[in-house]
Amino acid sequence: MALVSPNWLKGFGAFYGHRLAVYSFGMGFLASSFFLHSRGIFFPVWMAEFEADKTQISLVISVVLFTGSISAPIFGYCLDRFPWRNVVCLGAVWMALGYCLLQWADTYVAFFAILLLFQSFGWECIGPLAQTKLMVNWFSRNRGMALGVAIMGISVAGVVMPTLVTGLLERVGWQDTYLIYAALLLFLVVPVTWFLVKQQPSDLGQYPDGDVAPGVVMEAGNIVAPQSSSAAVTKPGSFKLSVYREFLGSKAFWSVVLTFGLMNGVYSAMITHLPTYLTQELDFTLFDASYVLGTAGAFSIGGKLVFGYLMDHMNAKRAVLGAIVSYFMSTLVFMQADSLAVLMIAAALFGLGFGGMVPVRSVLLSRLFGVTKFSRANGLMTFFLAPATFWVLITGVVADSTGTYISAFQIWAGAFLLAGLVTSLIDLPNSDQSR
Length: 435
Known about the structure:
Helix content is 73%, strand content 1%. Helix 2 (16-34) packs across helix 9 (143-196), helix 3 (39-49) packs across helix 12 (266-280) and helix 6 crosses helix 9. It has one domain: MFS general substrate transporter like domains (Growth Hormone, Chain: A, Up-down Bundle), CATH 1.20.1250.20. The protein has helices at residues 6-9, 16-34, 39-49, 54-70, 72-81, 84-101, 108-126, 128-138, 143-196, 243-248, 251-261, 266-280, 286-313, 316-336, 340-369, 374-384, 391-402, 406-425, and strands spanning 218-219, 222-223. The radius of gyration is 21 Å and the shape is globular.
């Protein structure tokens, strides 16, 4: 069976949700390009610019990511409670302002403060937390595939941006590159979001997945027997803070937190430190490093499609374990890498595992708590995953103290083994257990 179902693509022009999946793809591409896929290339430049070591620059990145994560419940509440496009547009303007201010960041402290205040909060408004909410609103039966396609933009950026950023760095410098990013946010992201996005299918008289009525599916132009749909029409939910007690009292919620807590953040550490590892320890060029990062991005595209499909059609626990195995094998190869070809293999395995994490996590949460509570559940889980953002700092500290990144790879491998053990012991909801 094809990974992208013909039924999912049918009626592309008629069902507005497909257009919004393309929009979310583009948003994922841009939002991740600005910091996620740029910082690894800029890392050694920031070290030289601010006369800092790996630990100091890693501290900036980890604190920025941590701050965004612990604020996620607030933004998750806003995305469930207020018009989606208002939250995203305000976040885009806020992030653009911070990127403009980087023009005057001439000290380590100023650099730290600007990224902390603007990048951390802006990312939560326009990144995966927002885009997954939009897809959950518009899709039910095909939610895993829709999330995989939408979030695929992050992976495509991982293919393109490292090499593009390396070229921009050499031509205009890192500060002017961020000025270009600010212009994209203000003059592309904001107007497109404002005029294109519709909150949910009922705004246009449609139903999730393009069905002709709640739970009624069209195949080959004919109506087939109604199916159970977890979100035929998104209805207003309760926005009382007491809903968080439901999440905190749910064993299933904590199962998902445990499953992803050991893995979340390692990819961030990899794309942050890998260029420095390759250029300083293995004597590759910065362009070589960009090609390795691009390979990880390319395979994470496949990971989103593969694991999105598996979540729709197969056992959830097996899907998660498959991603963990890919992660673990990649670290073993990274530790033995002595050529660019071997590094490409390691990056491919790493990207495949990472690619599945966002759609898998989002599908699990939507099955557990439904559409109207999704962003709040997602935001709260992001809060509890916040400590994992310090993988970036841990990696920098280990590399500075031991003189090599190999020790950090060994720690990553141990974390993946533990994640596999935890996953094998807990229950994860399959598609027939969706709320």
